[in-house]
Amino acid sequence: MFPIAFHPIYQHPLPEGHRFPMLKYELLPQQLLHEGTAIETDFFEPSKLCNEVDVLRVHTDQYLEDLKELTLDKRAARKLGFPLSAQLVERELRIAQGTIEGCLKAYDHRVAMNVAGGTHHAYTDHGEAFCLLNDQAIAARYLQHHGLAEKVLIVDLDVHQGNGTAEIFQNDDSVFTFSMHGAGNYPFKKEQSDLDIAIPDGYEDDYYLSELKNTLPDLIAQEQPDFIFYLCGVDVLESDKLGKLSMTLDGCKERDRFSLSAFAKARTKTNAIIPVQCSMGGGYSPEIKTIIEAHTNTFRVAKSSFF
């Protein structure tokens, strides 16, 4: 089995200007099935909405209450990027639950994927840039609370810095946050991750991959995590409307191949296999086929790396 979290709630209606970014959540599973990278039984629907207790290990009571009651002030609501609605909040809760359940499946299957997720701009007390609730942060705290992991490594290779994730885990040695992102891109005021590598605007495959390959294996060996989260946004592509790097599809695929192979080879201090959960993150190229191909590559190399 190749566990992949998916649910039709990802397709909830949005105003026309917000519809295009959501298409990938419909088309990606179709492509995976069409080419045989996944089969129907690989997909699972989150069994419920994320429990409030699990959310509140990361986010504040007031913020969650304002989301549920749709009482965010206008400025905070504008920062979300989406019109605030009950459907949107439900979507975020289900995505977070998909990441939690994916983590649990990763203990049996080594790796699990979420077709959505990667909401790394969500802070403890507010959301921004299409991120309301931080799915991987919520799942990391879930694992720790239930004694399933002590040391967690979050590897965030989206083109945008994981500022919310950095803020959530600041001064917390039990979760190591690594963000490799575009130097001149959003957020323009960066938070401080445990390790940040800022790639200058316009840099291409060779520079990016050299930085990654010189960093990631040593980082895993140094931190010796019990669990790894991977945020694999494809907005590093040259074609991306919201990215400022110049990576090719092949370069982005090599990023995933190298990272996932490093995760698959890694072992804990007791020589146990390290489970991995992947959330898709951003991808905003003008042509939907480019986005789907880049995301599909992540699933292809995950399958070849772990199975």
From TrEMBL:
GO terms for biological process: epigenetic regulation of gene expression. GO terms for molecular function: histone deacetylase activity; hydrolase activity. Residues 26-297 form the Histone deacetylase domain. The keyword Nucleotidyltransferase does not apply. Keywords: Hydrolase. Signal peptide: none annotated. It comes from the Bacteria. The keyword Hydrolase applies. CDD domains: HDAC_classIV. Belongs to the histone deacetylase family. This is Deacetylase.
